[in-house]
Amino acid sequence: MTTSRLAALERAEPSLVPLARRLLALAESGLPSMLLPGGEAFAFTMAGTRAPDGSWRLERRGISTRYAAITALGVRFLPEDRQRAVLAGRTAQEFTGLLVEALPSVTGLGDAALIAWAAADTGHPKLSDALARLDALDDHTRPRYTVEAAWVLSALAAARNTADVERPLAAARDRLLRSRTGGSPLFPHATGPGLLPWYRAHVSCFADQTYPLQALARAHATGPGDTEALAAADACAARICALQGEGGQWWWHYDARTGGVVEGYPVYSVHQHAMAPTALFDLADAGGADHGAAVREGLRWMTEVPELAGHPAAREPLVLDDLGVTWRKVYRGDPRKAVRAARGLATRAVPGLRLAPLDRVYRPLSVDRECRPYEFGWMLHAWLGGLT
Asked: pTM of the full predicted structure?
């Protein structure tokens, strides 16, 4: 299991290579249990429940089309025999075919975009069907959630070498670039007004940053070159890296107007080992800045978890090899997400207002014992993939 990204990690910080390999092995071993009976769909989540004797019980809950598509995007980088081992006998392309066949019933833009992206990356012969469904669902006159708008651009960038997608790609690219507020390098939660209440319209999340910067970098890399898109991706990446926590934490909520942090917690495992790496690696591959040091700091958090390390009673590993999971997040445990709501309202009125006493009252000592398929899909995509 050697890739340019793992090789770069070994050159820069050899001590982290065993952790990366451990997580990649965990992704392969854990994903099959997340498949629903029949092997044609993935659960939404695996929830862990601890028995009085200390043992764990994992339960599949729900179903998710988008998580299935993300899983295919990552699994495709495995050798064919290992793809089949993960996907109940199917290759990533064959599994993507199941998603393409189901597209007539798909109504979500994000789901359709991810399926089209997977169809493009796996070389599926019915890519044109996926692109047609994506086009039918995407009305550029309406605001969209930024994450879904970014997936549209990534899908079209992936398809541009085999299909004529330049017109919708340009529209998708422009939609993302226009969505930013003033001179802020960060992206909002929606590309325009109308989807969010006024009091939280300024609040965006970590995913609202990584998916657009990745999409813009890919748009630059797969075409004749787009310096404006690459510059926007670079600026966003530089800002989230500058805001990264001392323990390598990728913070959760930002003020899209000012480029500051609204509320840091929860800290999600998938951000640390997968989403930040896949976006920042793609940016570097596209000719943008190299943020490898920030990626390594984020990866290290997975086993050090400083939030829990200082409190022995709360100490709990997030990586559980025997169960085939990584626990989803570390969070405050505050009722009704009180800290997030309070800081969202406060920063709406006074940008940068922290309400510091909340950090003492609601400390991040809780663990969300879930694991979702997309976490492992992006993990494989991050460390085994590459644009070059």
From this structure: 0.94
How many whole angstroms separate alpha carbon 47 and alpha carbon 58?
Answer: 5
Could you give the residue ranges of the DSSP H alpha helices within the chain? 4-12, 17-34, 65-75, 80-86, 92-101, 109-122, 127-137, 146-159, 166-178, 207-222, 227-242, 269-270, 276-285, 292-304, 306-309, 338-349, 357-361, 373-384
Rounded to whole angstroms, the Cα distance separating 106 from 128 reads 16
Residue type for 224, please? P
Whole-angstrom distance, CA of residue 325 vs CA of residue 334:
25
Residue 315 confidence (pLDDT): 77
Among 2-6, 88-92, 156-160, the range scoring the smallest mean pLDDT is 2-6
Length of the chain in residues, anyone? 388
CB 258 within 8 A of CB 351: yes
Q: Which residue, chain included where needed, has tokens 């559980």?
A: 320
Kindly give, in sequence order, each residue whose CB lies less than 8 Å from that of residue 38, ignoring residues fewer than 6 positions away.
88
Three-state secondary-structure class, residue 37? coil
Query: Contact 309/315 with Cβ under 8 angstroms?
Result: yes
Q: Are 368 and 305 in contact (CB under 8 A)?
A: no
Q: Which of 35, 40, 44, 34 is nearest to 98 (CA)?
A: 40
The tens digit of pLDDT for each residue in 203-262 reads 999 999 999 999 999 999 999 999 999 999 999 999 999 999 999 999 999 999 999 999
Check residue 351 and give left, alpha or beta (phi > 0: left; psi -120 to 50: alpha). Answer: beta
Cα separation, 85 vs 57, whole angstroms: 23
Q: Distance between CA atoms of 25 and 21, rounded to whole angstroms?
A: 6
pLDDT bin (cut points 50, 70, 90) of residue 344 is low
Does 302 have pLDDT greater than 90?
A: yes
Residues with Cβ within 8 Å of 112's Cβ and at least 6 positions away in sequence, in order, are: 103, 106, 130, 133, 134, 137
Helix axes 373-384, 17-34, angle to 10 degrees: 140
Backbone angles phi, psi at 42, to 5 degrees: -105, 145
- Mean of per-residue pLDDT scores for the chain: 93
